[in-house]
Amino acid sequence: MSRVNVAFAGGGTGGHIYPGIAVREQLAASGRLGRSLYLVSQRPIDAEILREQNLDAVATPAKSPSLRPRALLAFLSSWGKAVRASRAALRDLKADGCPVVMVSTGGFVSAPAVQAARVERVPVVMLNLDAVPGRANRWIAGRAARVLTSARVGNGWTRIPPIVRSAALPPGDAAACRRSLGLDPELPVLLITGASLGARSINRLMLELLARMPGAFAGWQVLHQTGDSDGDALTKAYASAGVPAIVRPFVTSMGVWWGAAEIALARCGAGLVAEAWASRTPAVFLPYPYHKDQHQRANAMPLVEAGAAVLCEDRIEPAANAEDAGRTLVSLLADRAKARKMREASLALGPVDGAARAASAVLDVAGLSGLGTGGVDRVP
Fold first, then answer.
1. What burial letters (b/e) apply to 55-81, b meaning 16+ CB within 10 Å?
2. pLDDT of res. 283
3. Residue 210: its pLDDT value, please?
4. Most distant pair of Cα atoms in the chain: their distance
5. What residue spans define the domains of the chain?
6. What is the CA radius of gyration of the chain?
């Protein structure tokens, strides 16, 4: 059976790595995957994710572009090095004699990797995950053999459903997931996450709410993924408020957490929106406040428009957030009937099988037979 070797290009956050892992899972399940590797950044989070998954990685010296003089100089000086590192990895994959395809998931790592693919004559499948494409994806789109998008954007790109890895899918019902975490299976769970790097403003919002109105969390249990900051303070705050809580800086197997949750408070990067969609978890979304294009707001809109999520503004300061997003959250905690209606509304969003669709596209580009996942929509 013919196989394809695949280089996944994207890093810097879990949101750029996990979609590649999801597509790799589908390719491996098809029996058509040969070798694979991940072209990522030198940030510690990339190494941690891939080490946990036992996947091969090449940490390229790619840097994020910026108009600040030092950062711009670092980006320019790193470009050639990142292209050369990516070319070497691609030549290694080509040495097997199997067809080679690059899957780009966006971000600053992907642009020099795609340039390397152009030089090495390796076709590229681009996965656009955000509703507002970033600079890298806008550049890559004109250089890719196939462009797939899980968001409603234009440009004639091929639309697929959201992409979610298996470890982010609930492995059982809520009671079973809660038991596996050592929680009371009968009590509802609030999941809080700022994605792989955490979200400090969300952490501090929770510290503010626990200090102001600890009674609002009576009868609830909490799963809180914090990133590297505020973990000790939050652990103490939950204990002082008498709220059973599991606080972790980073969580690999998010599916158990999503399966346990009745409500989520979260950032709305494309990955988290896809996971909330896949698990049918009602969410209060707080978009990252420092993006000029505010693309996280656009990411959340399919769930908001369906009635499955609420969108608030991250006002950054804890007191201001407590008056806005905090009151929205507390109101939802007190109205579980509304949360149930939001969960029911999410059922109309449809299946989350974008990883299988993307894997089929990779096989098609490699000249191999697809996975038979059905048609895809063209976005006008």
1. bebbbbbbbebeeeeeeeebbeebbee
2. 98
3. 97
4. 64
5. 4-163+352-378, 167-349
6. 21
Torsion of CA 237, 243, 246, 250, to 10 degrees: -50
CA-to-CA distance for 12 and 165, rounded, in angstroms?
Answer: 18
Question: What number does CATH give the domain 167-349?
Answer: 3.40.50.2000
Tokens of residue 215, six digits: 């009674």
Does the fold of domain 167-349 match that of domain 4-163+352-378?
yes
- Give 237's strand partners: none
Query: Roughly what angle, to the nearest 10 degrees, separates helices 14-30 and 354-365?
Result: 70
**Exposure pattern of 258-286 as b/e (b: 16+ CB <10 Å)?**
bbbbbbbbbbbbbbbbbbbbbbbbbbbbb
> Would you state the structure tokens that stand for residue 367, as one six-digit string?
């000249």
Grouping H, G, I as helix, E, B as strand and the rest as coil, residue 265 is: strand
Dist CA 253 CA 120 (whole Å)? 36
Architecture of the structural domain at 4-163+352-378: 3-Layer(aba) Sandwich (3.40)
Q: Which two tokens stand for residue 32?
A: 């058509």
Residue 231: burial class (beta carbons within 10 Å; 0-12, 13-18, 19+): middle
pLDDT at 67: 64
Q: Which two tokens stand for residue 79?
A: 């470009």
pTM: 0.89
Walk along the chain (380 residues) in steps of 10 and give the mean pLDDT of each run: 94 92 97 97 93 92 80 84 97 96 95 97 96 90 95 83 95 98 98 90 97 96 96 97 97 95 96 96 94 84 96 95 96 96 94 95 90 47
Measured between alpha carbons, how far is 55 from 38 in angstroms, rounded to an integer? 8
The bridge status of strand 100-104 relative to strand 4-9 is parallel
What amino acid is encoded at 22 in this protein? Answer: A
Q: Which of 135, 126, 121, 133 is nearest to 103 (CA)?
A: 126
Strand pairing report for 4-9 and 33-40:
parallel
CA distance 171 to 332: 25
Q: Can you give the pLDDT at residue 65?
A: 77
